[in-house]
Write a structure and sequence with these properties.
With about 300 residues, the protein is an alpha/beta fold. It has 9 helices and 8 strands.
């Protein structure tokens, strides 16, 4: 017996979501009223454009548990013990939920992400991507750690398990030069080169993609994030994990996606500083951001 074709998952861009909610509030309608209408229209458009493809795509989601209040049994070997908040982040990932993981430097964000990656693999929650792209090989796991800059991406790769594919966001959605012609103020036609993503709703990322981890999310603009959303396959079941520090730099242009997601998603905030190698400098920076005034006697001499 043929199974019914699953409806596409529509991920609505952040700013459009805010606009639709505001409109519903102004008109005294249920807050999701226009979001539901928007999603229904987009599903109709996708099914009209892809009547055959939508029934033949293999989709793998992070499987959720029947009783989400029941703690998971962790299977992966623990290199370091996790505190209560770190374990909460691992639980959210195992439940297939998108969430934000925030905290100052040295609070264990990287250790938490490394543990949840190993748990997802140990519990067979994440599969192989099965398709090659600019960022993935077909045999890679269907999860990727992304950052805005190449340096941040290199740092993420250096400190993450080898099973995690790492990429800049621009590389993930395959930005490339494109020639465009435009009219100048004098009426002449001028050709210029612009960089645009080759991955978008007409050429999406593999439907088997399961997890996107965005490091230093405070530096990622809503515009860039919406371009990532546009590249997600309509049948994908992707969870996002946003890593960041509220004191980090904002995007060069636009608004930070992290601020919006802190209002939309579960938030796990890490506060205990563990890192030792930076010594007094890290202690000093942490106390400053907490508003604690140092005195000369607080510093070691010599």
């Amino acid at each position: 017996m043929n199974q019914p074709t699953p409806l596409p998952t529509i991920i609505i861009p952040t700013q459009i979501t805010a606009q639709l909610k505001l409109r519903a509030i102004k008109e005294k309608k249920p807050i999701t009223f226009y979001i539901d209408l928007y999603r229904a229209e987009k599903i109709k458009e996708i099914l009209a454009l892809n009547p055959v493809e939508t029934s033949g795509v293999s989709v793998t989601a992070i499987s959720t548990i029947d009783k989400p209040d029941t703690p998971h049994t962790l299977l992966a070997a623990a290199d370091i013990p996790l505190n209560e908040q770190q374990l909460k982040a691992v639980e959210l990932a195992l439940d297939g939920q998108s969430f934000c993981l925030i905290g100052p430097a040295g609070t264990g964000k990287t250790s938490t992400v490394n543990r949840l990656i190993r748990e997802l693999i140990a519990q067979d929650r994440v599969r192989k991507i099965g398709e090659s792209t600019k960022a993935f090989r077909a045999e890679d796991f269907a999860m990727v750690g992304c950052a805005y800059t190449r340096r941040a991406r290199d740092n993420l790769a250096r400190n993450s398990p080898s099973q995690l594919v790492t990429s800049t966001l621009h590389n993930l959605i395959e930005f490339q030069p494109t020639k465009k012609t435009e009219m100048t103020l004098t009426g002449d036609m001028k050709e210029k080169i612009v960089f645009e993503p080759a991955r978008h709703f007409k050429n999406p990322l593999p439907a088997s993609l399961q997890i996107i981890i965005i490091d230093e999310a405070s530096m990622v603009s809503t515009e860039l994030f919406d371009q990532v959303l546009d590249a997600i396959h309509p049948l994908s079941r992707v969870i996002f994990i946003f890593l960041g520090d509220l004191a980090q730099l904002p995007p060069v242009f636009g608004h930070a996606i992290l601020g919006f997601k802190l209002l939309e998603l579960p938030v796990v905030e890490l506060s205990k500083v563990y890192r030792q190698k930076d010594g007094e400098i890290l202690d000093f920076a942490t106390q400053i951001r907490q508003g604690i005034q140092y005195k000369d006697r607080d510093f070691k001499s010599g």
